[in-house]
Design goal:
The chain is of the alpha+beta class and 226 residues long. It has 3 domains: 68 residues, 3-Layer(bab) Sandwich (Hsp33 domain); 80 residues, Orthogonal Bundle (Helix Hairpins), CATH 1.10.287; 49 residues, CBS domain Like, CATH 3.90.1280. Helices cover 32% and strands 28% of the residues. It is built from 8 helices and 10 strands. The strands form 3 sheets. The chain has a 6-stranded mixed beta sheet, covered by helices on one side. Strands 6-7 form a two-stranded antiparallel sheet. It starts with a strand and ends in an 11-residue tail after the last helix.
């Protein structure tokens, strides 16, 4: 998912997979007002959702940032691009003096023939969730709190974790695509090439011996530097 705009936050990217492994980065220019809303933060822009299935072709949906919140923009995307009734409930705040965030996604499954009244009923129930409940209660307790009078199926939970896909090998592969004269110019000026991952902050440093190995189709063995 990407947010792009002409505001102080020019770009925000979140990558995730079906194993609940996530990574993200945001690029900010200038000062961001305290308690800035989405319009102030991103300005005029758009939301891009790219899905790469294990089988089949990659596809992409683009919608303008017309909602007042990120949740509203995502709901708009699902309705326009996927034709799926969707509500996203995001809560932010603090727990023990530390920033906290939580959320719930309510969506009709593609294979289900749900009635509009049923979905709106569940959305009304979900709107009552409080920030402190999302921050402090277990998922099972939240479901009981909201839907104890409904028929609910609970699946095994999946842990969400940060995981970056960068590697020294991928950086070496990127260097192989650059013209030799460009690499030689950087090496002459800096004595090494330092490649930085914006997602996790890892630095991959390549010296002249590494560059020679890359040109000989070998894998440089120097360790990464954090």
């Amino acid at each position: 998912m990407q947010l792009q705009g002409d505001g102080p936050m020019t770009l925000a990217v979140i990558n995730g997979n079906n194993q609940q492994q996530m990574r993200g980065v945001a690029r900010v220019q200038g000062d961001v007002p305290e308690n800035a809303d989405l319009k102030t933060l991103v300005g005029n822009g758009y939301l891009v959702i790219t899905i790469s299935p294990e089988e089949g072709e990659r596809y992409q949906g683009v919608v303008g940032l017309e909602g007042d919140t990120l949740a509203a923009c995502l709901e708009d995307y699902f309705m326009r691009s996927e034709q799926l009734p969707t509500r996203l409930f995001i809560r932010t705040g603090e727990v023990d003096g530390q920033p906290a965030a939580g959320g719930m996604l309510l969506q009709v499954l593609p294979a289900q023939d749900a009635q509009t009244n049923d979905f709106e009923h569940l959305a009304t129930l979900t709107e009552t969730i409080k920030a402190e409940e999302l921050f402090t209660l277990s998922a099972t307790d939240v479901l009981w709190r909201l839907y104890h009078e409904e028929e609910v199926t609970v699946y095994d939970p999946q842990a969400v974790e940060f995981k970056c896909t960068c590697s020294r090998e991928r950086c070496a592969g990127a260097l192989k695509t650059l013209p030799d004269e460009e690499i030689d110019s950087i090496m002459a000026e800096d004595g090494e090439i330092d490649m930085h991952c914006d997602y996790c902050g890892t630095h991959y440093v390549f010296n002249s011996m590494d560059i020679a190995e890359i040109r000989n189709n070998a894998s440089p063995a120097d360790p990464q530097v954090h």
